[in-house]
Write a structure and sequence with these properties.
This protein has 253 residues and is α/β, with parallel strands linked by helices. The chain has one domain: Rossmann fold (3-Layer(aba) Sandwich), CATH 3.40.50.150. Helix content is 36%, strand content 26%. The protein has 10 helices and 7 strands. A 7-stranded mixed β-sheet has the order 3-2-1-4-5-7-6. Strand 1, helix 3 and strand 2 form a beta-alpha-beta unit. Helix 5 packs parallel to helix 6. The two termini are 30 Å apart.
Length: 253
């Protein structure tokens, strides 16, 4: 199995804020209650949940739930608030899921909020394999009739759907260009990040027997301002959007 490249703790600090996916809670709660079979108690799993603000808000919004947060960064895991309904695990999700799948513990809803594009290896092909393994791992610990929620930023290319993704990965993973890409706003400069077009994600979901049962568009990229406009031209971006996909295993809805 390829190794997930882990951001330095210093770089991870840039993700320590209270706004991560909080705006997604309302549509996510609505979708969960409309899709997941009604029962007294739901178990939630937040992969790469950072400081826990999203999961905390979900637990507040849905009193009939308990949650587990998986986070690779020790510093971020320690920033989480504690509660009787919340379990915090500092671990590599792929390793943790492999062990958990051997037992009986399963989750009704699994979240990947702005996380799958951070499953990166030394090369883009490795990154895609890691993303695929993450989806497989989620399936292995998903309860029957459960839901996988993927919130991603889609970069759709002008001349080829995946061209922006390839360019972003090449630029962000280059150590030589790291000072420039960091100046341009990439907090993963020198480490790499692997975005995709919306059509690519849909194809990847389908490869692993996951069908989109619902989705919610949060917003479309406007590219207002000089720097965003330069990004759009240089990276061959036709459109960009922030969208949540709700996935279920084929035949098990």
């Amino acid at each position: 199995m390829a190794e997930v490249i882990k951001l330095s703790e210093e770089r991870v600090e840039s993700f320590d804020h209270d706004s991560t996916a909080i705006h997604a809670v309302a549509p996510v709660v609505e979708a969960i209650r409309g899709i997941v079979p009604a029962q007294k108690h739901l178990t939630l799993l937040d992969v790469g949940g950072g400081n826990g603000t999203f999961l905390d808000t979900m637990l507040q919004a849905m009193s009939e739930t308990s949650g587990t947060l998986i986070e690779m960064s020790q510093a971020m895991a320690e920033k989480n608030s504690r509660s009787d309904r919340k379990t915090i695990v500092c671990a590599n999700f792929l390793d943790w899921a492999a062990k958990t799948a051997q037992g009986s513990k399963r989750f009704d809803v699994i979240f990947f909020n702005f996380v799958l594009h951070h499953f990166v290896g030394k090369h883009r092909d490795e990154s895609i394999r890691l993303q695929s393994q993450a989806l497989e791992a989620a399936k292995s610990v998903l309860a029957d009739g459960g839901l996988i929620v993927v919130y991603e930023i889609h970069y759709n290319g002008l001349f080829h759907d995946e061209l922006p993704s390839k360019l972003i990965h090449a630029l962000s993973s280059s150590n030589v260009l790291a000072p420039l890409t960091k100046l341009m706003g990439a907090n993963t400069a020198g480490y790499g990040v692997c975005f995709h077009s919306e059509s690519y994600w849909r194809g990847l979901f389908g490869q692993f027997g996951l069908r989109v049962v619902d989705e919610h568009l949060i917003e479309k990229g406007s590219f207002a301002g000089i720097k965003p406009h330069i990004h759009k031209i240089v990276l061959n971006i036709a459109t960009m959007n922030y969208k949540i996909h709700f996935l279920q295993v084929e035949g098990l809805s």
